[in-house]
């Protein structure tokens, strides 16, 4: 297998140049997918026979929840790459991904609560999935707080990497223990999503939305990383040239 | 290698014995938190008995967390940590000795104090063995996981609150399994399953966390 | 199309407030996530421009 692409990622300059293309592609894909998915899910998908139209919240709840979980996993992988190969870009990716992941967790929690009101009759129930999402939000807060508390940039990135790795090892344990706790205390909760029984006209827009959210995440992450790269590499000659080009454009 | 381990254990034990107040503080905190609950929810025996597994575990969690704040601080300030990092001995082994010593003094004392407080909350005597076992298996995990957070925040001026923020979410499985075991015992059900789970988590924590603690210390010292 | 009229679409079969508030807030959060880095970038460029001007004047 050819690993040159991986070694190239070690160069912020190469990343900055190539990522403007990716950014454009991902933004277009995200806008298209989310737009089509939203319209399809809101207007064209048939209502659920049990929950009626409130089930349409699934089209944001599930993609946000997917993204929240995979974002933490991505942070752990970035942390591992940063610790093992000392790659600057991995550090940047880890710290810039954390706020996006926290926002996605927030969306998943909020839509879950709003959806819970017509479904369970309460804004908040200690359902296994909602509870693990809440814990995930706390884990994100931990990474963000640690990154901001340490002033030295390199040690902040390394500390966040260690924390993200410890958290990622813990997440499955937390998930299973919360599931177990939930079955113990509330037997026979109403299951919200039965994936196997969903009709194609119901899950196709969901698929579009999930893909759209991933593209959105990629685009915002690149946007944030590009700014951070400009800041970190401000002393290098290529950033100085790039800055004068950008400032020319602003004027 | 095991020689270093025992030497370090002895050093830590001597240091801890010189500051008995620091050892007693988490225990007093544990007792006070337990005493707060009857005052807050009312003195009904039935209610306190049903709540007692959760109360004891939450209080133990907070007490361990409180005691961990200063785990590496004095070693960080007097420069011993730097010596550890540059020493030829493997750092994970050294931190394991450090956490072991800490647990032997503060964690074990907590385990021994817990039955007394549990009986005051109205926990029946037949549940005490399960309480002791669950705490005995659970508190090492709390100490080890908390030490990761303590290692990451040791260089910071106000690391205490941050430590709680970082570590409390990671404590949740231990809390669920520990209080679950006691609840099962309270209802007269077998608690072996939860205790086995706690035991396997302890084994996992003993094997993995020393490396994370060592990495955290290296980062904090290098700053 | 699973709705007969636009007013029915807005009502969402009595679940309107829930569906629309969930979508509205999520849309705002998504927008915020795009806007914040863009604003930060603009502010950074302005700061740099000011710094360069100041250094050029010296």
UniProtKB/TrEMBL annotation, chain A:
It comes from Pseudomonas fluvialis. This is Heme exporter protein C. It is a multi-pass membrane protein. It is found in: Cell inner membrane; Membrane. Pfam families: Cytochrom_C_asm. Belongs to the CcmC/CycZ/HelC family. Required for the export of heme to the periplasm for the biogenesis of c-type cytochromes. The chain crosses the membrane at residues 21-45, 57-85, 97-116, 128-147, 159-178, 202-223. It comes from the Bacteria. Keywords: Cell inner membrane, Cell membrane, Cytochrome c-type biogenesis, Membrane, Transmembrane, Transmembrane helix, Transport. Residues 28-185 form the Cytochrome c assembly protein domain. NCBIfam families: ccmC.
Automatic annotation (TrEMBL), chain B:
GO terms for biological process: cytochrome c biosynthetic process; cytochrome complex assembly. It holds the Pfam family CcmB. GO terms for cellular component: plasma membrane. The chain crosses the membrane at residues 21-42, 54-72, 93-118, 130-154, 161-183, 195-219. Its main location: membrane. GO terms for molecular function: heme transmembrane transporter activity. Keywords: Cell inner membrane, Cell membrane, Cytochrome c-type biogenesis, Membrane, Transmembrane, Transmembrane helix, Transport. Coiled coil: none annotated. It is found in: Cell inner membrane. It is a multi-pass membrane protein. NCBIfam families: ccmB. Belongs to the CcmB/CycW/HelB family. Required for the export of heme to the periplasm for the biogenesis of c-type cytochromes. This is Heme exporter protein B. It comes from Pseudomonas fluvialis. The lineage of its organism: Bacteria, Pseudomonadati, Pseudomonadota, Gammaproteobacteria, Pseudomonadales. The gene is ccmB.
UniProtKB/TrEMBL annotation, chain C:
One of its GO terms (cellular component) is plasma membrane. One of its GO terms (biological process) is cytochrome complex assembly. It is a single-pass membrane protein. It is found in: Cell inner membrane. Required for the export of heme to the periplasm for the biogenesis of c-type cytochromes. The chain crosses the membrane at residues 20-40. This is Heme exporter protein D. Belongs to the CcmD/CycX/HelD family. It holds the Pfam family CcmD. PANTHER family: HEME EXPORTER PROTEIN D. Its main location: membrane. Keywords: Cell inner membrane, Cell membrane, Cytochrome c-type biogenesis, Membrane, Transmembrane, Transmembrane helix, Transport.
């Amino acid at each position: 297998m050819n690993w040159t692409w991986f070694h190239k990622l070690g160069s912020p300059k190469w990343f900055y140049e190539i990522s403007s293309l990716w950014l454009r592609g991902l933004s277009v894909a995200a806008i298209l997918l989310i737009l089509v998915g939203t319209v399809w899910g809101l207007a064209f998908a048939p209502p659920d026979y049990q929950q009626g139209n409130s089930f349409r919240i699934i089209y944001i709840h599930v993609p946000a929840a997917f993204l929240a979980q995979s974002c933490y996993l991505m942070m752990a992988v970035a942390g591992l790459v940063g610790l093992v190969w000392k790659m600057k870009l991995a550090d940047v990716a880890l710290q810039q991904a954390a706020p996006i992941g926290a926002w996605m967790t927030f969306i998943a929690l909020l839509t879950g609560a709003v959806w819970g009101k017509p479904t369970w009759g309460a804004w908040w129930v200690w359902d296994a999935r909602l509870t693990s999402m809440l814990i995930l939000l706390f884990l994100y807060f931990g990474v963000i707080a640690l990154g901001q508390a340490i002033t030295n940039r390199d040690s902040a990135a390394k500390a966040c990497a260690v924390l993200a790795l410890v958290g990622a090892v813990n997440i499955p344990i937390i998930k299973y223990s919360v599931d177990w706790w939930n079955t113990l205390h509330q037997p026979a909760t109403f299951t919200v999503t039965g994936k196997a029984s969903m009709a194609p006209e119901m899950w196709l827009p969901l698929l579009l939305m999930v893909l759209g959210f991933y593209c959105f995440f990629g685009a915002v992450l690149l946007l944030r990383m590009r700014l951070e790269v400009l800041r970190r590499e401000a002393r290098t000659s290529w950033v100085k040239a790039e800055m004068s080009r950008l400032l020319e454009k602003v004027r | 290698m095991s020689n270093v381990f025992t030497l370090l254990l002895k050093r830590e034990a001597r240091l801890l014995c010189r500051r008995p107040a620091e050892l007693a503080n988490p225990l007093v905190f544990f007792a006070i938190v337990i005493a707060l609950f009857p005052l807050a929810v009312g003195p009904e025996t039935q209610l306190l008995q049903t709540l007692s597994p959760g109360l004891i575990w939450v209080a133990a969690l907070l007490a361990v967390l409180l005691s961990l704040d200063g785990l590496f601080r004095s070693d960080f300030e007097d420069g011993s940590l730097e010596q550890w990092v540059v020493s030829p001995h493997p750092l994970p082994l050294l931190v394991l000795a450090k956490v072991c010593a800490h647990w032997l003094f503060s964690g074990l004392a907590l385990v021994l104090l817990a039955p007394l407080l549990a009986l005051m909350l109205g926990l029946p005597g037949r549940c005490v063995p399960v309480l002791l076992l669950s705490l005995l298996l659970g508190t090492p995990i709390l100490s080890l996981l908390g030490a990761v957070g303590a290692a990451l925040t040791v260089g910071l001026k106000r690391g205490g609150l941050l430590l709680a923020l970082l570590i409390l979410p990671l404590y949740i499985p231990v809390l669920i399994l520990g209080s679950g075991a006691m609840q099962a015992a309270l209802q007269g059900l077998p608690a072996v399953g939860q205790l086995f789970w706690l035991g396997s988590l302890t084994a996992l924590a003993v094997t993995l966390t020393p490396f994370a603690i060592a990495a955290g210390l290296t980062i904090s010292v290098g700053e | 199309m699973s709705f007969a009229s636009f007013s029915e679409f807005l009502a969402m079969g009595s679940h309107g407030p829930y569906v629309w508030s969930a979508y509205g807030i999520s849309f705002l959060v998504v927008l915020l996530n795009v806007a914040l880095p863009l604003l930060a970038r603009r502010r950074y460029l302005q700061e740099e421009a000011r710094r360069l001007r100041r250094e050029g004047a010296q």
